[in-house]
Amino acid sequence: MLGKLFLTSLAVFGAVKAQANPCSAKSIKIETQSDLDGLVTCTTISGDLVLGPNLVTATINTIRTIKGDLIVANAVNLQTLIAPELASIEGTFNMTSLTVLGTLTFNSLKSVGQIYWQTLPALTTLGFAAQVTQADKVTITDTILESLDGINLVSVQQFNINNNRYLKEVTVQLTNITDSLAIEFNSPSVAASFPNLTWANNATFRSCGSVSLPVLASVNGSLGFFENTFESLVTPKLTEVGTGTGGGDITFANNTALTNVSMPLLTQIYGTLQFVNDSQVREITGFPKLSVVHGSIDISGEFDEADFPAIKDVRGGFNLQTTAQFNCTDFDQLQGGVVKGSYVCSGAVTNPGTEGTDPTTNGGSGDSGKKNSAGRFTANKSFAAIPALILLVALL
């Protein structure tokens, strides 16, 4: 009996102690500023800190570390969020649907597990005086941020910045990106600059005003440029894209102002090199050292010059279709040797298409087989023998 009484008393004591020490709770729900003030004895929160939807202003005092997540969701009246001493969030810094949040001041914050911010239509600037230099994943979408000043990472797994319509620049000191980089659908004039980025797994740039990758040397996956407004793209240090096991493409599509692409050191692509609907590109000559393409070369548009002087091995197909008059003589020599797959080279094409489409020239429909200048069909041996056969029949 005494033993049971002792155990019961111990359990009650433990429960009271847990209530008296909210710092160690698995999750702390905050409804008012008074709730936050009740954490004044905490420098470390062991679990999640969840701010409720009715807050108008919130100041997180004394807390330096949150070992779980900091979650602020659907607080449609929250105007100000301040955490003067918070240096580390080991979980996710999650802010979603905060429609009037205009002040975000975390002057000590340096390390975050993940940043996930979505729908912050009143937030224009970040108050991160100490600079966030460590995060595994970053997703920032649907804000009116004008810059990412205060986020200055060195290494990251994912970096996804999209649909921030007033974002004018993305300048980050990243050296490597182990999963994916995506800068998409922000301000059409956004300047994306990665001055120290030497290696990325995948990288996508869409609707950018400029892209700067001065030291990028290797991309393990794919590199894509879509619907951008810049005129020139130069990657002076890039040597290869893709891997032998995963492939990896370089794609330029629908970049309506693009006139120049230069990748002077690129030697190998493990996937496909593609240009499609880049209407101002007149020359595709910026690949002087490209020698091996494990996929295909697939270029279509309005260019009148293309050259791959070092090409030795194209293990997929070759497709060149252009609206301009084009002499395919040099490329014809690649068919069946350098080019292992299907081969099309055609100029004066009405609607240039990507690999697998049959070119239609201004002189009529294209036919299967090798094309030369102006889309004229070069006869195969079986067709070439027909006139001789007719002559032989006539003589008989």
From TrEMBL:
Stored Gene3D superfamilies: Receptor L-domain (3.80.20.20)
Subcellular location: Secreted, Cell wall
A Gene Ontology biological process term: fungal-type cell wall organization
Name this polypeptide is given: GPI-anchored cell wall organization protein Ecm33
Hydrolase recorded as keyword: no
Top-level division of the source organism's lineage: Eukaryota
Transmembrane feature ranges: none
Major localization class: secreted
Leader peptide range in chain numbering: 1-18
GO cellular component: cell surface; fungal-type cell wall; plasma membrane
InterPro entries according to UniProt: CWI-Assembly_Regulator, Rcpt_L-dom_sf
Region span, Disordered: 350-372
PANTHER family: RECEPTOR PROTEIN-TYROSINE KINASE, SPORULATION-SPECIFIC PROTEIN-RELATED
Assigned keywords, A-Z: Cell wall, Glycoprotein, Secreted, Signal
Organism in which the protein naturally occurs: Orbilia ellipsospora
Chain intervals with Polar residues compositional bias: 350-361
